Amino acid sequence: MGKMGSSSIHASGSSSMVSLSGSIIGVLLVLISNQMAVCNGGKTSTFVRKAEKATDMPLDSDVFRVPCGYNAPQQVHITQGDHTGKAVIVSWVTMDEPGSSKVLYWSKNSHHKMKAKGKHHTYKFYNYTSGYIHHCTIRGLEHDTKYYYMVGVGQTARKFWFVTPPEVGPDVPYTFGLIGDLGQSFDSNRTLTHYERNPHKAKTVLYVGDLSYADNYPNHDNVRWDTWGRFVERSTAYQPWIWTAGNHEIDFVPEIGETKPFKPFTNRYHVPYRASDSTAPFWYSIKRASAYIIVLASYSAYGKYTPQYVWLEQELPKVNRTETPWLIVLMHSPWYNSYNYHFMEGETMRVMFEPWFVQYKVDLVFAGHVHAYERSERVSNVAYNIVNGQCTPINDPSAPVYITIGDGGNVEGLANSMTEPQPQYSAYREASFGHAILDIKNRTHAHYSWHRNQDGYAAEADALWFYNRYWHPVDDSTGA
Ligand SMILES: *[C@@H]1O[C@H](CO)[C@@H](O)[C@H](O)[C@H]1NC(C)=O
Ligand SMILES: *[C@@H]1O[C@H](CO)[C@@H](O)[C@H](O)[C@H]1NC(C)=O
Ligand SMILES: *[C@@H]1O[C@H](CO)[C@@H](O)[C@H](O)[C@H]1NC(C)=O
Ligand SMILES: *[C@@H]1O[C@H](CO)[C@@H](O)[C@H](O)[C@H]1NC(C)=O
Ligand SMILES: [Fe+2]
User: Fold this and answer.
1) Which of 17-21, 38-42, 174-178, 273-277 has the lowest mean pLDDT?
2) How confident is the model over 225-232, as a mean pLDDT?
3) Distance separating alpha carbons of residues 156 and 420, to the nearest angstrom
4) Rounded to an integer, what distance in angstroms lies between the CA atom of residue 6 and that of residue 460?
5) What are φ and ψ of residue 287, in 5° steps?
6) Residue 320: CB within 6 Å of ligand 3?
7) CB 160 within 8 A of CB 76
8) For residue 33, how far is its CA from the centre of ligand 5 (angstroms)?
9) What pLDDT, on a 0 to 100 scale, did the predictor assign at position 22?
10) Are strands 158-163 and 174-179 parallel, antiparallel or unpaired?
11) How far is the CA of 133 from the centre of ligand 1 (A)?
12) pTM of the model
């Protein structure tokens, strides 16, 4: 029997009449279709987004503007710099000359400026040469503290700020944003604006891969990596984005002699992989507040005996749910995807790792890649052993919910063709651009909401409470 998605649309000052009446019609349609559906799984949203081509913002767009001043730092971004949230990696690019790789920083309550020294380098990609890319790790920060920081010391200095997370602990509330496959189209700008204006005010973005889509340009024109860095700076300079590598980060182009995979991505975006004993920047983990976040690599080897496999096998037993109740996994290619795009691409990794996810009671798995939104039931498909024929996903209270959030709005457009009928495991799916918020309240409860770009900033198109699999493993599927 079909289930109703909990499309609780909260009318706020900014929600439009259109979305309200749309939701009423939507509820009516769901009520009608609920009586008819027998074999369908969950809800395929009745919201139909206007079909239009996504277009990249032109190079002279306001969001790509170069900051004023000689050698001014641009593309400023930060990410967590250690395993527990007491360090931050600050990165930026200077164009005219290397300039200083120093970061000056001071906490809100102190005027004593501290100094950290970073490094800079450049890279070439076909006939493109990058600016001077700086990375500097600031360590020994106090938890739950606002810091100001300054880059471009001695030339054109620019000042930003960030807030460190509270100390890791089981009941520490924390709010994450979820964005994937953003790109740099007009729709990408709408998604980022909706994320910024969402009244939930998330503090860190869990980014599920595919950043700039520079590889859609001739010779993977890396100028589009620079424009992307300037576009997202308005968020990435002030809050950490936790990076996952997607297929658009591979940049493997043997025709033009570019045979080192992930070259632009790894030069520009550093992650604290060594802090979790990883041997490559594509898979790693961090703790933040009450969450343990594991980032996996869909485009690095994960078969048995490979470095990623061995790392994950040793990593999962380290997660202490008394310390970090929420176990969250990020990856690019989804395992449970019922769209006609990238169908079953995640299947081989699912076969390798899904039994561990069920054994270790992963709460939530976020992926991108498919340019749409989908949320699964708690299901697993781990019984099959090649002779027993048990190859259908079943409801499983120990299994994660799988969420595809590849709907950032990049130039490739929406994935709007779905497999029919909707499989049982799929709880809600909709082909619209948007972002999501995971609002962790304590060790048992987290409120989750998905926000489509067509609605007002506060409207929740798909929303529910997730209950922690370790501390409160009761049914949290929609309609229950
Ligand atoms: C790189 O080569 C392409 C064509 O091969 C050309 O259009 C472009 O202007 C070149 N860029 C630079 C920076 O030389
Ligand atoms: C992008 O969004 C911002 C904030 O809403 C707006 O100020 C800006 O003009 C937009 N730029 C483009 C090119 O759409
Ligand atoms: C798990 O974390 C709790 C709380 O920090 C701590 O008391 C306990 O010793 C840890 N357990 C293990 C096995 O490390
Ligand atoms: C956890 O948060 C939920 C939602 O805010 C609340 O209802 C519940 O009482 C909280 N649990 C504890 C132990 O505080
Ligand atoms: Fe992708």
Assistant:
1) 17-21
2) 98
3) 56
4) 9
5) -105, 140
6) yes
7) yes
8) 32
9) 42
10) unpaired
11) 21
12) 0.92
Q: Which tokens hold the place of 147?
A: 């810091």
Does ligand 4 have an atom closer than 6 angstroms to the CB of 442? yes
Whole-number Å distance, alpha carbon 63 to ligand 2 midpoint, is: 6
Residue 70: phi and psi, rounded to 5, are: -60, 125
Radius of gyration of the chain (CA): 22
- What b-and-e string marks burial along 33-60, b requiring 16 or more CB atoms within 10 Å of the CB? eeeebeebbbbbbbbebeeeebebbeee
255 lines ligand 1 (CB under 6 A): no
Sole residue written with tokens 């048990």: 390
Please return the burial class of 216, using the count of CB atoms within 10 Å of its CB with bins 0-12, 13-18 and 19+. middle
- Of the residues 342, 369, 435, 451, only one is catalytic, namely 342
**Å from CA of 218 to ligand 1 middle:** 9
Select from 200, 438, 445, 464 the residue to mutate for testing ligand 4; criterion: most ligand atoms less than 8 Å from CB: 445
| pLDDT, tens only, 38-93 | 346 789 988 877 776 789 999 999 999 999 999 999 999 999 999 999 999 999 99
Place of tokens 């909260």: 10
Dist CA 191 CA 270 (whole Å): 24
Report the relative pairing of strands 326-330 and 291-295 from DSSP bridges.
parallel
323 C-beta closer than 6 A to ligand 3: yes
Residue 172 Cα distances to 73, 131, 262, 288, 444, angstroms: 35, 40, 35, 9, 11
Express as a percent the part of the chain with pLDDT over 70: 91
CA–CA separation, 23 vs 74, rounded Å? 42
Residue 345 has what pLDDT? 98
Question: CA 230 to CA 64: how far, in whole Å?
Answer: 5
Residue 436 corresponds to which amino acid? A
**Residue 342 catalytic?**
yes
